[in-house]
Amino acid sequence: MLHATALLVVLLCSGCVPRSESDVVVYSALDQEFAEPILMGFERRQDGETGVIAKFDVESTKTVGLVNQIIAEKDRPQCDLFWNNEILHTVRLQKLGLLQPHDWNVAATWPKDLIASDKTWCGFATRARVLIVNTDMIPDAAERPNSVDDLRDPRWAKDCAMARPLFGTTATHFAVIRDRIGPDAALKMLSQIVDNAVILSGNKQVAQAVSTGRLAWGLTDTDDAFVEQELGYPVAIIFPDQQPEQPGTLRIPNTLAILKDAPHPVAAGRLADYLMTGEIEDRLAMGPSSQMPVSPDSKFPPPVLPDEPVRWMQVDFESAAEGWPQWADAVRDVLGEP
């Protein structure tokens, strides 16, 4: 019953979709190929009692597009559950008062930075911000970069890369950096990176530029780096900033949030509870994106994880999302964009 046709998307956007009272409408920034089979599994378990109407956005700025649609629909919500594949813009919706609290059925050990202070969102199935290195170009492991800060090291001038920090996980990453070191220091760091590194359109493009030998290394996400490694390219994945004086590796979760005044909050809650489980995290871990489970009930360690434990960066995502529009304007100025 899962609907994903172009016609449905048009109708849904216009608010004219006739649907059962038991249907739940999901806006998903997670790629359709990953999210759709899981949503179909939920439908099957409901024995026809609850259907899923899913809207996927295929644009490179898909999270922003879906969030802007939710904001545009705030007076008459069409979406019940927002499944974001990152977190920054979920927190933006929280700060705009467009989400409602939910009693998330998660373990007491759930990381505090992956659950909203007001319980309006919860994070799961994470990706990490990692360095991808071409091992043919940098064969000596001791010579390879080990920190995000190496992006501004003149040693790597125009031989390293990152994605534009206005969308996706790179935007979240630099919002976190701004929150950690302050806006002035973060803008200085970003300006130095822009002068030193190659700025590409997205994380996938960074990973491909490194795997094909165009560049020696770059900052990307584990899913994009893992794909290149699985394709047999000569690349290594480095979880950065692991030394005691360094901040640790940033992990960015998928997030779930039920919309305030959602047309079907009960069904949305059932779907949220279904998704927020070790079973679903394991399915995402086993997939080609090798996402990293948070639940202690998870039974599948994703192959992208290194053998040694990773020290994760401690983050306050709610603080990092403060003043996003103004910060985005400042980032555009550094990038020389209007």
Helix content range of the residues, please? 25-40%
CATH architecture descriptor text of the largest domain: 3-Layer(aba) Sandwich
The fraction of residues in strands falls at 15-25%
CATH homologous superfamily name of the largest domain? Periplasmic binding protein-like II
Give the N-to-C terminal Cα separation: 44 Å
Q: Return residue spans where pLDDT drops below 50 for at least 5 consecutive residues.
A: 3-18
Q: What CATH first level of the largest domain would be assigned?
A: Alpha Beta
Look at the structure and give the mean pLDDT: 92
Keywords: Signal
Region (Disordered): 286-307
InterPro entries: Ferric-bd
Protein name: Putative binding protein component of ABC iron transporter
Architecture blueprint of SSEs:
Layout: H1 6-14, E1 24-28, H2 32-45, E2 52-56, H3 62-72, E3 81-84, H4 88-95, E4 99-100, E5 122-134, E6 160-163, H5 168-181, H6 183-196, E7 198-200, H7 203-211, E8 217-221, H8 222-230, E9 235-238, E10 251-259, H9 265-275, H10 278-286, H11 317-320, H12 324-335
Parallel strand pairs: 1-2, 1-3, 6-7, 6-8
Antiparallel strand pairs: 3-10, 4-10, 5-8, 5-9, 5-10
Helix pairs in contact: 5-6, 6-12, 7-8
